[in-house]
């Protein structure tokens, strides 16, 4: 819980973690059960907030294959969750070379088969350069899949927004293509 709170975008997280740990050293491991305590309650809420965003990203990250065979993805998380998301893809794609870019923090997780994954700072890269990381074949496959599974008579935008928050859509191929196609029409 403390690790997830440390990765959050919460402004007073340092003081919150410090006070939680001091209280935890005094009470013991049962501190996590004291949810009625305001401090513990805030720790639980922030932990849940970061966990929820991580869970969303595990389902919403889309990779594009580059000419050199590297899979790439760009994300814009509110919290610093790259270290929580990357192990999932390392486990599922152990033989693939991939990079996940966190454009909000200018960091990138890199994975090479048979080697440990790393997170690198990308301070010298212009954010516009991330936009060049695309592959039409994968994008078209996502678009076809997205349009094929849709039943036009049952489209429910409100439910779709509940299950797929709008802030994740800019990083999802099927929505990016849809918005690009809409913009290109006169």
Using the CA coordinates, give the radius of gyration.
20 Å
Give the helix/strand class: alpha+beta
How many individual domains? 3
Instruction: Tell me the β content.
Output: 5-15%
Cα end-to-end separation = 50 Å
What is the spatial order of strands in the main beta sheet? 1-2-3-4-5
Mean pLDDT: 82
Q: What about the largest sheet?
A: 5 strands, mixed
- Anisotropy-based shape: globular
Number of strands: 5
Helix percentage: 40-55%
The low-confidence runs, each spanning 5 or more residues with pLDDT under 50, are 177-186
Treating each run of at least 4 consecutive H or I residues as one helix, how many helices? Answer: 9
Q: Give the topology string: H per helix, E per strand.
A: HHHEEHEEEHHHHH
Task: Give structural notes.
The longest helix is centred in the N-terminal third of the chain and has 23 residues, at 38-60. Helix 6 crosses helix 9 (173-184). This protein is globular. The chain has three domains: 2-57, no CATH class; 61-134, no CATH class; 135-186, no CATH class. By secondary structure, it is of the alpha+beta class. It contains nine helices and five strands; from the N terminus they run H-H-H-E-E-H-E-E-E-H-H-H-H-H. Strands 1-2-3-4-5 form a five-stranded mixed β-sheet. Strand 1 (64-65) and strand 2 (71-75) form a beta hairpin. 51% of the residues lie in helices and 11% in strands.
């Amino acid at each position: 819980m403390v690790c997830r709170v440390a990765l959050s975008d919460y402004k007073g997280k340092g003081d919150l973690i410090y006070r939680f740990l001091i209280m935890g050293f005094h009470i013991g491991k049962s501190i996590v059960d004291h949810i009625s305590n305001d401090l513990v309650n805030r720790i639980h809420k922030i932990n849940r907030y970061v966990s929820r965003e991580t869970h969303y990203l595990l389902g919403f990250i889309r990779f594009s294959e580059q000419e050199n065979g590297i899979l790439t993805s760009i994300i814009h998380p509110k919290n610093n969750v790259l270290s929580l998301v990357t192990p999932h893809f390392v486990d599922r794609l152990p033989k693939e070379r991939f990079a996940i870019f966190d454009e909000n923090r200018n960091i990138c997780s890199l994975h090479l088969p048979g080697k440990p994954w790393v997170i690198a700072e990308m301070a010298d890269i212009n954010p516009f350069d991330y936009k060049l990381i695309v592959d039409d074949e994968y994008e078209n496959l996502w678009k076809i899949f997205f349009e094929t599974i849709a039943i036009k008579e049952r489209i429910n935008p409100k439910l779709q927004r509940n299950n797929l928050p709008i802030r994740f859509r800019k990083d999802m191929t099927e929505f990016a293509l849809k918005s690009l196609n809409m913009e290109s029409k006169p």
